[in-house]
Amino acid sequence: MLQFAKRFTDDPELREEFIDKAEKKYQWELNKTPEEKLINPGIALSQYRTDEELKKALGTIHCPVLLVYGIKDAMLLLSRTFLPTAYIPGAKAIFYQDASHFVHYAYRDDIREEISRFANKAFEHFHTCTDKNGSPQKQDSNK
C-alpha cells in the first residue's frame, strides 16, 4: 500500500484512475438499496453485537489513536464517530466541518500536520513511560 501511495502522487494517470474508482465506490455505497444495506451494513467492527461489547473492546486499545472525520460524510453517521473517541483511552478526534468522506484529500496538508504532531506527542509520551529497552518504567509515587 505504501508503494501505491508513493506512486499515486507522482503519476497523474494513476491518480485520476484512483480518484475515479474511489468516487464510483462512494456513489455505490450512497445508492445501496435497503436490502443491500442489511447484507453488508459497512459497519466497522461489526463482529460486536451490542454497543456494550464494542465499548468494552475499544477500551482494550492501549496505543495512540487519531481519528479524522468529515462532518458531511454521507457514509458514516456522525453519531457513530463519537464512540471510539469516548472509549479508547487517550484517543483524539479531529472534525472538519465542510469535509466529506474524502476529508484526507480535501485537507491533505492539514491532516499530514495533525498526524505529525500527534505522532510526535505519542512518541514523547512513550519515551517518558518506558526505559531504554521499551519496557514500562516504574512511576515515582513522590512526583
Describe the structure.
There is one protein chain. The chain has helices at residues 2-10, 12-30, 34-39, 51-58, 78-87, 103-106, 108-129, and strands spanning 66-70, 92-96. It has a two-stranded parallel sheet with strand order 1-2. The chain is mainly alpha-helical and 143 residues long. 3% of the residues are buried. Residues 1-6 and 139-143 have low confidence and may be disordered. Helix 5 (78-87) links the parallel strand 1 (66-70) and strand 2. The protein is built from seven helices and two strands.
Question: Can you lay out the helices and strands and say which pair or pack?
Answer:
Layout: H1 2-10, H2 12-30, H3 34-39, H4 51-58, E1 66-70, H5 78-87, E2 92-96, H6 103-106, H7 108-129
Parallel strand pairs: 1-2
Describe this protein with a few key phrases.
mainly alpha, disordered C terminus, single chain, globular, 2 strands, disordered N terminus, two-stranded parallel sheet, 143 residues
The helical percent reads 40-55%
Radius of gyration: 19 Å
Mean of the pLDDT scores?
Answer: 77
**What string, H for helix and E for strand, traces the elements in order?**
HHHHEHEHH
Which structural class do you get from the secondary structure elements? mainly alpha
Largest sheet: 2 strands, parallel
Shape: globular
Arrangement of strands in the largest sheet: 1-2
Taken as a percent bin, the fraction of beta residues is 5-15%
**Number of H/I helices:** 7
End-to-end distance, in Å?
Answer: 44 Å
Low-pLDDT parts are 1-6, 139-143
Number of strands: 2
